[in-house]
Amino acid sequence: MPIDIPPLPDPNPVMRMLGSGASPFLLVSDHAGNAIPNRLCDLGLGAADREDHIAIDIGIFATCNWLAHRLDAHYIAQAYSRLVIDSNRRPGVATSMPEVSDGRFIPGNREIDGTERERRIAEIFTPYHEAIAAALDARAAAKRVTVLCAMHSFTRTIGGFERPWDIGIIHGPSTDVADALIEALSGGDFHVGRNEPYGVDFTNDYTVPVHGEERGLPSVEVEICQDLIGDDAGQRRLAFAFEAAFRQVARTLGFLKEDGDA
Q1: Residue 255, pLDDT score
Q2: What percentage of the chain carries pLDDT values higher than 70?
């Protein structure tokens, strides 16, 4: 007789690494995981869609895990798929729980009722952002310098349009960190764009506007092209590149620890 194996329990939405990290950089990833609550039956999607860029920022979790350990930086990441609820969208906007993503229909997001929407917010979105807020509050109470870095990856081609950038540095009105990071990354192996392949959307986006700009913190969003971090070698290479870049930013802007390291 076949064995009926029950599904694994739903994971905690908040993944934390190096909670006591000494670096001034706080790394966060809104789309690091692709978990879907068991009750939603994979949103009606096949495995290929659940592993694709519509569901997860490919390669970003492993890259940032390497980077966090290299920098000794606190890292907070979302375990659930952006298709369940997008943790970088304000709840209530159309892209928070999209019915269509990159031309593909999401069956489990059609005609979601208010109760289900509120459940996803309460169980997935809110704990993740409360964890970020708590980390920022604790650092402020300890009078620690903090630079909020929202780490993402993007697909090289979308809607038939080829994106030429390898790395995008995204910022709002505060540009000091972005300027220093672009300088640190430019002139090397990467095509770096400013506010490419898109900018911060203060109407729809959440993480940088709320946790960065509203608090008056130095903040930046980093976008890495997924074809650079699709395997272990690429993830390590980009983690090392960003380690060097972040350390240069720390020196340039004076975000240094007593031992002179970032």
Answers
A1: 87
A2: 96
Instruction: Give the model confidence (pLDDT) of 34-88 as tens digits.
Output: 999 999 999 999 999 999 999 999 999 999 999 999 999 999 999 999 999 999 9
50/206 Cα distance (integer angstroms): 23
CB 181 within 8 A of CB 147: no
Q: What's the rounded Cα separation, in Å, for the pair 46 and 117? A: 22
From CA 142, how far away is CA 129, in angstroms rounded? 20
Question: In the structure encoding, which two tokens stand for residue 251, read together?
Answer: 């020196």
- Which regions of the chain does DSSP assign to beta strands (E)? 14-17, 25-29, 75-78, 100-101, 104-105, 147-154, 157-158, 161-162, 167-170, 192-194, 219-225
Q: Which pair of structure tokens corresponds to residue 253?
A: 């802007």
Full set of structural domains in the chain with CATH:
14-253 (3.40.630.40)
- Cβ-based burial of 198 (10 A; exposed 0-12, middle 13-18, buried ≥19): middle
Helix (H) or strand (E) holding 36: none
User: Mapping DSSP to helix (H, G, I), strand (E, B) and coil, where does residue 149 land?
Assistant: strand
For residue 259, what pLDDT band results from cuts at 50, 70 and 90? very low
